[in-house]
Amino acid sequence: xxxxxxxxxxxxxxxxxxxxxxxxxxxxxxxxxxxxxxxxxxxxxxxxxxxxxxxxxxxxxxxxxxxxxxxxxxxxxxxxxxxxxxxxxxxxxxxxxxxxxxxxxxxxxxxxxxxxxxxxxxxxxxxxxxxxxxxxxxxxxxxxxxxxxxxxxxxxxxxxxxxxxxxxxxxxxxxxxxxxxxxxxxxxxxxxxxxxxxxxxxxxxxxxxxxxxxxxxxxxxxxxxxxxxxxxxxxxxx
Length: 238
Fold this sequence. Notes:
With 238 residues, the chain is α/β, with parallel strands linked by helices. The chain folds into two domains: 4-93, Elongation Factor Tu (Ef-tu), domain 3; 110-235, Nucleotide-binding domain of ferredoxin-NADP reductase (FNR) module (Rossmann fold, 3-Layer(aba) Sandwich). The chain has five helices and twelve strands. Helix 2 packs parallel to helix 3 (153-162). The longest helix has 13 residues, at 119-131. The chain is globular. The two termini are 25 Å apart.
């Protein structure tokens, strides 16, 4: 798809320092759950050496019929300009691309080990599997500092209620037992095996900050998971 303009319909805070942007859906726009797009600001008031264009995951599933991106708000010129973009403004985008998508074989389980904003493509995949009522057995281990830092936490809780094949395990690294009654601490092999009975069977999807993705890949390999069954996507802090 050639570059075209889309209009910002709505923006909202979805977690601490994290915003979702709802865009006008172009006619005939098709994408797969888990894919991304490139958003380019038009004549921003400030820019930096990284330029006016960034890759952003499509957060909603095709079956939800909404074009939504989300990002942590940092100090970069792009993030600040995007945060302050008035509703009704236009940006350029170039359609959908990327292969970080859910495998087709429904008899093979999927295990997502995700940190923070890395949830954006995963929310799309799990929503699509839930809405289409596929037979994928899905487990999501979702790490954040606190519930306030976790984008789309309530969406995922609602999907887990609707989808009997989806096991949702939010994990908080900086919440006390009084603040959070669920899993706490860092994700490791012990936690994984508590929720995944046969760790050799699933396809694993890792998404989040680069350091976490590397650590989780090392953990899986050390636990005996076949490296060919691990797919990863790193989110830079731009």
